[in-house]
Amino acid sequence: MALERMQVTNHERWGNLVKTWSTGKNYLDDDNEYPIPTSVEEFKEQLAKAQVFMTVPDRFTKVKFVEQELDTIVVRLPPAMAIADSEEKLSKPGATYPLPPFYKRLFNGLDPVIPEAEKFKVHAERIGDYTISYCA
Amino acid sequence: MPGFRHFFGTPAPSQRFRAFGVDPLASPSPNAELRGLMHRLSRRMDAAIKWRPHQVQATECWENPFIPSGYTYLLQFVAHDLVHSAIPISVAGGLGGGTANARRTPLRLETLYGSGPVGSPHIYALDAPNDDRRTKLRLGRMRWKENEPASGCPFRDIARTPAENVTGIDRSIAGVRIALTEALVADPRNDDHAVMSQLTALLALLHNGLVDIIRRHEGNAGPNGQFGAAYRRFLCAREALVAIYHNVLRDDLMRRVIHPAIYAVYREPNPDFIARPHSAERFPTGAWEIPLEFSHGAFRFGHAMVRPEYQINDLSLHDLNNTLEKSSVNDPANMPLDETWMVQWSRFFEINGSTPNLSRRIGPHLSDGLGNDQIFPAFDETERVGLLYRDLLGGGLAGMWSVDALIAEINRRRPQLIAASRLLTDRAWRVDQLREWLVSGQVYGALTDQDIETLSNDPPLPFFILFEAMQQMDGLQLGLLGSIIVSETIFGALAGDPQSAGGGSLVDRLNLISREFYLTNVLQEIPEISSMAQLVEFTTEIAGLQQAVPAFL
What we know:
Helix content of chain A is 39%, strand content 3%. By secondary structure, chain A is mainly α. Chain A is globular and about 50 Å long. The N and C termini of chain A lie far apart (35 Å). In chain A, 14% of the residues are buried. The model of chain A has no long low-confidence stretch (mean pLDDT 89). The longest helix of chain B has 32 residues, at 226-257. The model of chain B has no long low-confidence stretch (mean pLDDT 93). In chain B, strand 8 and strand 9 (317-319) form a beta hairpin. The A-B interface holds A 1, 4, 7, 9-10, 12-13, 30, 44-45, 48-49, 51, 53-55, 58, 89, 92-96, 98, 101, 104, 108-111, 113, 115-116 and B 43, 46-48, 58, 60-61, 145-146, 173, 176-177, 308-309, 314-322, 325, 333-334, 338-340, 367-373, 383-386, 443-444.
């Protein structure tokens, strides 16, 4: 069975929730409190409060928050199984490379087309980028 | 309100749903208390349901192995064929002119055919260069993301077209792609999203194939008879498709979603309906009215069946957000649909041992994608986004029968239908069950004790139908109350149709239909079709799509 992934519905709200956790200032513009969750259940409850509508598969039983510091390199290694799962999906001819919907808005409203020949190149570039980037 | 009625006639005020003991119809707008309560209940329903695991390991516990996802969208199509309002009650804020139901002849495929080639010519293809007759439904060419073939793409999408606006608005991407903002379909809701428009294209392909079959058998009408021949051909194909559709609804769709005991009662010829509004055997043409308890109560259950993602074909997996966005209204610059959206129907119905996408189990929880704040933005002071709040609020504002009053009335008229359900017959137990569930996830909705008391004693109907399905049927089918309301409405509409009410096999009905228009049976090569799998297989064959690329079957 293919690996179930987390899926975000409302990306702006998700980003604002992350900013709220990071800064302690409420970016959601509501009356709720958003302390950093200590369990998956609390994590899900806060997603619901913020109306993020994120699908969190049942396989996730723990949550870990990593506060990055400016003088420390943090390399978040994805699970080898997740990479293998993506590679298997992408290796099927014609298989689509999924991108969050806001990319389309950034690229002039057109659905991004990743040519067949470049799927693995983009896959590697994105893994490299998200593994070390500061998201701020 | 025109086009709507109540299930057992208009309820007395004491029989209507109330929030905190207040009748929303007697309460001054904007019903702030009701909105707050439905908001908090919808948030309680954000908590995922902890379903019992299936015995089959390959099936996720939230999936329903008995209902492939194609039926979710057949249900949506049926809803479009029963109800058509200009504005939802939830957004309008109450019952009024804009919320009237314009669909007055139910389940006759008006949602596909509109007013026919004369009344709705824009949805029909030209049969002749001088445009004196139209018989086939329009389709549009799909698009390949890369490598556009010189011969053109196949007609696998619904038809779409650009249109210049007097307002000067242009959604095209200059120099790159023209926005196809207009879907050429009879009912704009049939382009709500990619799977819906693909289902519409499937039925259009079937209609067009039926036209070809009839044409092969009808003989030569001569130069002066071509218009009349074309119209007969169209009407015969339409009646044939309606007959096939009714057979599928009765023998396949209803069998899957309705509680077996209720299905057995209503599947019989001439069922003894308990809520028929008309004294005559059949309702007068154009006088159909739909019960609000169906349209704004029970039939909302289909929203709970929507999956978070779909394997559209062998190569393309799309999440629900992408799927919902793919329409001419939401994404005109990326129309027509490309190959990644061409539905391979064995992924949506079980065909020759295929493993289709499975619908969600039915319960008080919806897929996260239905909380999309771009497609279902907030519209009132609660700031609540998503489809669920709209369903609950619309039900609350419609002045529907309360759950208690519905059960009491069914118990008075036909007690044997619900005798087996403790949830329906033991009120104290029902209230306890509801209270227990509401309390168990209290943190999600921030429900107050007062909220829990009013909701457990007087649950909103759309919520209760989902709760009943979860509690009574493990989410695999509707419970008894939901099944009775849906069966009364759908089997009632079928019984009111002269063609459908006659009974007999499909082959016999097609023979009768043909002889209304021709001396012989021009429909004799159509087999007995009583399931969506058979409908898809037959369409594949008559449309010559066995080897289609992208795959159709």
